[in-house]
Each structure stands twice: as structure tokens, then as C-alpha cells.
Design brief:
Layout: H1 6-33, E1 35-49, E2 56-66, E3 72-76, E4 88-94, E5 97-103, H2 111-130, E6 135-138, E7 149-153, E8 159-163
Antiparallel strand pairs: 1-2, 1-4, 2-3, 4-5, 6-7, 7-8
Helix pairs in contact: 1-2
Length: 172
């Protein structure tokens, strides 16, 4: 069972990459349809998650801005930011739903994709190290008209005979 533990890293990496790519695509779609107007941070709402030493604070600015059609909107940003109260900022907002807004300088994060690739790489490296099969070589019985024989090198360096995988071209 321990030999399959690295697959958890692989699965975690794939999930993190998928979620991050989905978020990045969503951000880019929003940015394409959004309108840009000047605004100001009128408040900052802080939420906490976790417990004890793992307690994490997330700060979301409350943005006040005027839409291109003249409506004044005050709404909590859909993304976290370090902007403080009173800071002027450009605001991106959805013209169909002006309460969906964020500071224009919010960067789309690639950190999740990088973390996913790292987890995926670690999982694959550990899986190959602990899988027990490091090399496959052909034995001397491959030309006798019968089924070809291969040898599998074990992690400890010893070899054991094994049937060759189907489709393995031993003539080249």
C-alpha cells in the first residue's frame, strides 16, 4: 500500500492544477467583459478561516464606484486585496451585474498551477522510486521461436525473469 501513497501527490497535483486553470479562465473571461472605472476603497471586510496557529485572515475591499451609466455602487470585491480604506483604485465590474467587481490591479494567480505541478512532479518521482521496477531488459531466450523472455531489474539491483509485454519489438 505504501508504494501507492505517491499517487495521492499525483492526484492532488492534478486537482490543484485543474481548479487553478478553471479559476484563471474565469478571471480572464470576467476581465474581457468587465468595464473599467475609477473607484475608492470605502471599507475592508476581514474573514477568518482555520484555528489556532493555522488561523488565516482574508481581506476583501468594499469598493465604491460610479458605473458608466451613472449609478453609484458599493459592493464587496470578489477577490482579496491588500488595499486599505481610502485608497483610490481602478475597478473592473460586470456591466450586467455591477455588484460583481474587483480592483483592476488584481492579478490572476499562477501560484496554484505551480504548486500543482510541483506536487505532481514529487508524486511521480516518489512513485517511480518506490514502484520496484527500474529497468526492463531482454533475456537470451528471445530468438528461439518461443515467447520472448525479459528480465525486470528489482529495486535492490537483482533481476527476475518475466514475460515481455505484448507489442515489445525485440528485433530493434
Amino acid at each position: 500500500m505504501f508504494e501507492y501513497f505517491p499517487l495521492l501527490f499525483v492526484a492532488f497535483g492534478i486537482v490543484v492544477i485543474g481548479v487553478s486553470v478553471k479559476g484563471l479562465i474565469g478571471f480572464q473571461r470576467f476581465a474581457q467583459r468587465a468595464l473599467r472605472v475609477p473607484g475608492v476603497v470605502s471599507d475592508v471586510r476581514t474573514t477568518f478561516s482555520g484555528r489556532g496557529e493555522g488561523l488565516k485572515a482574508t481581506h476583501r475591499p468594499v469598493l465604491t464606484f460610479t458605473t458608466v451609466d451613472g449609478r453609484e455602487i458599493t459592493t464587496e470585491a470578489s477577490t482579496a486585496s491588500d488595499l486599505g480604506v481610502g485608497n483610490a483604485t481602478e475597478v473592473l465590474y460586470d456591466p450586467q451585474d455591477p455588484t460583481s467587481a474587483m480592483p483592476a490591479d488584481t492579478a490572476a494567480g499562477y501560484g496554484g498551477i505551480v504548486a500543482g505541478v510541483i506536487a505532481l512532479g514529487i508524486g511521480l518521482a516518489f512513485f517511480s522510486a518506490f514502484s520496484g521496477v527500474t529497468d526492463v531488459t531482454t533475456g537470451s531466450g528471445s530468438s528461439g521461436g518461443g515467447p520472448a523472455q525479459c528480465e525486470i531489474r528489482q529495486a535492490d539491483g537483482s533481476f527476475r525473469p518475466a514475460a515481455c509485454p505484448p507489442g515489445l519489438d525485440l528485433d530493434n
